[in-house]
Amino acid sequence: MKDARIAVLLPCYNESLTIAKTVGDFRAALPDATIYVFDNASTDDSAALAEQAGAVVVPVTQRGKGNVVRRMFRVVDADVYVMADSDDTYPADEANLLIEPILRNEADMVTGDRLSTSYYKENKRPGHNFGNALVCRLITTLWGCRVKDVMTGYRAFSRRFVKNCPVLSGGFEIETEITLHAVDKRWRIREIPISYRDRPSGSFSKLNTIQDGLRVMRTIFNAFRLYRPLSFFGISGLLFLFLGVAFAAPVFAEYFSTGVVPRFPTLIFSSFLALSGLLSCSVALILDAVKKQSDREYELRVMDYTRETVSEQTKAD
């Protein structure tokens, strides 16, 4: 990997105040890298300033960071990808810290951990602080893995990861989707503490705390339902079964002692709960089998991709 092609990917929407400095900082930190600015239909002169600073500007007409990242992963061909925001909040001179584990083949995704350093001090929006902590806690609880910073925008990826990572989100929930995909598919993840600085005066975040926060929570909910169907449907199924038995027990006890069933509504309701529980447990088992088969097919696709990539590199050498 000594001759690795490095691409810096910068999503951009109305960042005329910071885009030139961000591009310049990454050019200085990674002089051999190609700097790409994916302009998301900015209404200011961000694209022109990025081009003047030496970046390759790629227009993206579909609004939303997820749409931008999807475009990035599709069109850019490199060996190592560095993704950062265009708002001058992430230090470009720490990019090598993220790249090194990729170059040494020790990780497939390296995330810049803001929350362990200066984020809570620098960030002036308490809703963002609460949301980041909540998301990390939820994922740690549901997936049983310790992820320190789920929503960081400063990341490095291997080529194999990028070309095998489906991007379905359209907005700011993209970081959460990528992280959960990496956790579920057992990609090698490293977290590197990086410094963080707040936006300069006059620059404004495009993230809506409430609206985008709800979209992130929906992403976590859907991911848990799709990636962990046995837990998602199995827990609810067992709960319904327990409630059904709890409601039915007094009815059957009375029947065995008196020979009559005076509380038919309770019996019907408990039967409904029990049937719902059995159905949910059945769905859990079926979807878990489908998920495992899907994981097998995904692993085979990644193996095929790796084999083809190695073959191409061998021919090139």
Structure description:
- Strand 2 (34-39), helix 2 (46-52) and strand 3 form a beta-alpha-beta unit.
- This protein has helices at residues 19-29, 46-52, 65-75, 95-103, 119-122, 126-143, 159-162, 174-184, 209-227, 229-258, 264-316; strands at 6-12, 34-39, 56-59, 80-83, 109-113, 155-158, 189-193.
- Strands 3-2-1-4-6-5-7 form a 7-stranded mixed β-sheet, sandwiched between helices.
- Helix 6 (126-143) packs parallel to helix 9 (209-227), helix 8 runs parallel beside helix 9 (209-227) and helix 10 packs antiparallel against helix 11 (264-316).
- It contains 11 helices and 7 strands.
- The protein has 317 residues and is α/β, with parallel strands linked by helices.
- The chain is 56% helix and 11% strand.
- It is elongated, with a radius of gyration of 25 Å.
- It has 2 domains: 6-226, Spore Coat Polysaccharide Biosynthesis Protein SpsA, Chain A (Alpha-Beta Complex); 229-316.
- It starts with 5 loop residues before the first strand and ends with a helix.
Brief overview:
It contains eleven helices and seven strands. It is an alpha/beta fold.
Strand portion: 5-15%
Overall residue-averaged pLDDT value: 89
How are the strands of the largest sheet arranged? Answer: 3-2-1-4-6-5-7
Compute the number of structural domains: 2
Structural class based on helices, strands and sheet pairing: alpha/beta
Silhouette:
elongated
The CATH topology label of the largest domain is: Spore Coat Polysaccharide Biosynthesis Protein SpsA, Chain A
Identify the CATH architecture of the largest domain. Answer: Alpha-Beta Complex
CATH 4th-level superfamily of the largest domain: Spore Coat Polysaccharide Biosynthesis Protein SpsA, Chain A
